[in-house]
Request: fold
Amino acid sequence: MDSILVRGNGPLHGDIEITGAKNACLALMPATLLSEEPLTLTNAPRLSDIKTMTALLESLGAEISSLQAGKVQAMGSHGDISPIADYEIVRKMRASNLVLGPLLARLGHAVVSLPGGCAIGARPMDLHTTALEALGAQIELKDGYLHAKAPMGGLRGGVHKMRFPSVGATENFLMAASLAKGTSVLENAAREPEIVDLADCLRKMGAQIEGDGTSRIEIQGVDRLHGATHPVVTDRIELGTFMLAPAICGGTVTCLGGRLSLIESFVETLDQAGIDVTENERGLTVTRRSDHVKAVDITTAPFPGFPTDLQAQMMALLCTAKGTSTLEETIFENRFMHAPELTRMGAQIQVNGGTAQVSGVEQLKGARVMATDLRASVSLILAGLAAEGETTVSRVYHLDRGYEMIEDKLSGIGAQIERIQE
Ligand code: EPZ
Reply:
């Protein structure tokens, strides 16, 4: 298993390229199951999660070719499609559950393994199943698999209000309702940019969708969808992550392709902490106003609130702030596993259930630490950039799920970082 070695760094300077969004691409790829015609995604990120989704779709009978060194995913599902998403693949990546809606819409039935829990929480599927049942699906759990069946004649339009604005359940509903007979309405829908990106792609395929990006989405079902080519939206979580590099080290860095509209609440929090962010034609330019950031309180929330996927990275920054910050994690039940690792670097963090109190320290100290999940691993890299001495982050396979060539990108702005094959 590889590790990443980071040495404490002075100010960082330069440009860093932001790639296509992992969480958009993982929802866009299953959409190829909705049409017999080819779907091509450009600006796709080169990540292990994309490889896992490729393997899953191929196991269902889709044909996928990664072109231009993986930046383009050309997909087709004109042959026979299997309804069975096997546990061996699904257990590796929760987003595998995003084939449920498309398989139901395309085939009228699906047998999809429950993903099982992961490091950050139990991750149940009830919001997906109740949403699809509103379209007439009958879904039962047997031997760890969801067995789903559409009514005779296929899914039919329905109205559904979600208990919680689940991103994945919204995506499954969007894809299934696009081919349902009649009108569907989803209330309390997720509003993330990845939802809008999926709706944009489905519209290019012929779907009739309105209201994506708001809490109420209306879909007019159509008989069939055709092929399309669609660019994956910029990754707002990678964007926010790399904006924190100059925030924690000092210096000035431009995140190419970044747009304020993707992360307004995060940028407001950075402003409170004393970080300047300006949008220009190249992207977002970030610089720290003074030698130390100020403590701020954050509460994670569904979009447009503070993103849970940036909570661990923000905690690393606040470990070096002047004052005490309170971080409240409201989306996942176990998303502070980076805290004990940051404590090994001299951070002062008190975790109590879903709340963490972070008292800023003058200087973090390099240490050997262990990645536990995707976003926790990158928070340790950020802390290592600001720490005195060397930090070695082990189990970086977590990192490779969501960050493309992170050591190359950070080295490009002056960070002392290298990958160690172990
Ligand atoms: C998506 O996961 C993202 N993943 C996650 O990013 C992100 O943290 C999450 O949305 C929230 O923004 C992808 O898009 C591939 P949810 P998803 O359904 O769709 C509970 C990363 O680091 N819930 O909005 O699975 C669930 O347990 C990953 O890139 C139910 O109770 O998130 C969680 O507590 C991590 N029942 C909350 O809702 C359900 O049926 C939010 O889940 C579904 C979810």
